[in-house]
């Protein structure tokens, strides 16, 4: 526990933007939390693969929801989680594939799977170059592991180096990446394990040409179909309406979805609950929460926000209260303020909404 914010009665800063550091926190929206927990329970206990779509207004918390699912999944040892963000300016499915491989490497999933393959595969029975590369990643030898990671990412690897880890092919095109990702997931879900694949910002596929978009959507479909057991895939979108999802990914894939989890704008009461809950989570004494805010200050600031904005989103509310608390932190440290009342909170709201780039 840091004493940096002791003068505020807080153990940490409550208004972090969505990120790994706040992934363990969930405030409000109990129906969404329940549906995510049901999703994870099915992923680990039911063999049949499942597909979910997650839709949200801009700033309504879908990335945080995915990170919270990733956090919850860590308590289930037989569930391997890979989270990836569809790159901006995506050129083809190959870009999605590389991000997926990087995610699997980062969480240590490939090294663990490689060691498992070595321990439980009869010599000579390895069936694909993807398996051979994953085995090389699982060794405790730095150079073979480096070569294997580069090969698996689709980087250019000299043939001699490839042969040293037992692979003869290359992953250079989107079709080859689709097959490689399907094989990679198949390896990860060996021995009764399951894979949770969280794909954020799927709307970025809209920037592709129609041909490339069809190829990418078809790739996701193929990866799902080639892993009919042990795979839970969540495709997450920011879009103006839920209908945009179907037009983007097509009816064939959308019809496979088990459920759609929606994260629309939040109500006034949900905004108050969000701020109060975030402050309470960081309070030195939760019974004193929402100190340093007076309860009336949170309500007044939310009401002012609701008046000036067409809709309230978790992001806009968090950014507004972050600005208020930054000002108050200085004034409290200077001794000119002891508590944040309604007048102070409303007076120190940001004068304008943050632009998309600032968010």
Describe the structure.
The protein folds into two domains: about 100 residues; about 210 residues, 3-Layer(aba) Sandwich (Rossmann fold). Helix 4 packs across helix 5. It starts with about 30 loop residues before the first helix and ends in a 12-residue tail after the last helix. The protein is elongated, with a radius of gyration of 23 Å. The protein has about 350 residues and is α/β, with parallel strands linked by helices. A five-stranded parallel β-sheet has the order 2-3-4-1-5, sandwiched between helices. The C terminus is likely disordered.
Labels describing this entry:
alpha/beta; Rossmann fold; 2 domains; 5 strands; disordered C terminus
Query: Into which percent range does the helicity of residues fall?
Result: 40-55%
Number of strands: 5
Strand content: 5-15%
Please give the alpha-carbon distance between the first and last residues. Answer: 28 Å
Supply the number of helical segments.
15
